């Protein structure tokens, strides 16, 4: 039967499916179809679906298609009798439950369901420390699960907290117990990366395992990826290798403020994805900026004025040496009640030529 769908390019399928699931717009009752390089994802709420995939920059379109009803797929909800809150990172399923009995029941349902999952982790702490990592409780492991073979490792080679996450035709090896990573930012990362032109010099000031840096290099940019977390940088180097861009990615472990002297005036584009603290690094960003530079500045602020503090911080650091033009004020997602995670795309142009 004909059902409403979002149609996207095949390489954008997982990011679109994740965005639709987070928006509660994914139709689990019908199969996803693939035809001539396009993926057709069934949805239950067309308005919510349009909003969910808006960051795909025109790659997504609403349509209808004759899709078969799903048959015989047993989900965790079928087993539990309620819909649990789950997040998938690679073949790891993440839950957030305070009740140990409920956490165990959900984890067992995930393992027993027909959806692929190698381990179930429960959040055991908030994100903390300079390295932005959290503690995890390993609630369940399916020792018989076999993940898709990757370039270097099969499921049996990985710890319960380590996985290979795929996003927009790239893959990222990571360990959730040692690094920060959010799959919820997939469409935002894609939005930024799509702006990059071949030959650009891109500096990611807080690079993690490389989810901005590796796709940027795949676009033909020369990339410097900096992070305080040495383990994250090790993964970034490995991810550059497995995605075939090692020759275009320089990964540096350390504080970006200590790296600035080596790359002063180098960057055509800067990524500042460190909400809550990015304002502390704006002066360093200006030091790194070339004669013309785009800054992608991420912030978390109250909904009453989500963009003003970031704009003020950039202007204070950059003017009068640079003319400052705010190109985009973009809401990434809701972060907490009355707080928004936002991005400012800001063009700096030197006034001294």
Automatic annotation (TrEMBL):
<dbReference type="Pfam" id="PF02475">
    <property type="entry name" value="TRM5-TYW2_MTfase"/>
</dbReference>
<dbReference type="InterPro" id="IPR030382">
    <property type="entry name" value="MeTrfase_TRM5/TYW2"/>
</dbReference>
<feature type="domain" description="SAM-dependent methyltransferase TRM5/TYW2-type">
    <location>
        <begin position="86"/>
        <end position="350"/>
    </location>
</feature>
<dbReference type="Pfam" id="PF18093">
    <property type="entry name" value="Trm5_N"/>
</dbReference>
<dbReference type="InterPro" id="IPR056743">
    <property type="entry name" value="TRM5-TYW2-like_MTfase"/>
</dbReference>
<keyword id="KW-0819">tRNA processing</keyword>
<dbReference type="InterPro" id="IPR029063">
    <property type="entry name" value="SAM-dependent_MTases_sf"/>
</dbReference>
<dbReference type="GO" id="GO:0008175">
    <property type="term" value="F:tRNA methyltransferase activity"/>
</dbReference>
<keyword id="KW-0963">Cytoplasm</keyword>
<keyword id="KW-0949">S-adenosyl-L-methionine</keyword>
<protein>
    <submittedName>
        <fullName>Class I SAM-dependent methyltransferase family protein</fullName>
    </submittedName>
</protein>
<dbReference type="GO" id="GO:0002939">
    <property type="term" value="P:tRNA N1-guanine methylation"/>
</dbReference>
<dbReference type="GO" id="GO:0005737">
    <property type="term" value="C:cytoplasm"/>
</dbReference>
<keyword id="KW-0808">Transferase</keyword>
<dbReference type="InterPro" id="IPR040601">
    <property type="entry name" value="Trm5a/b_N"/>
</dbReference>
<keyword id="KW-0489">Methyltransferase</keyword>
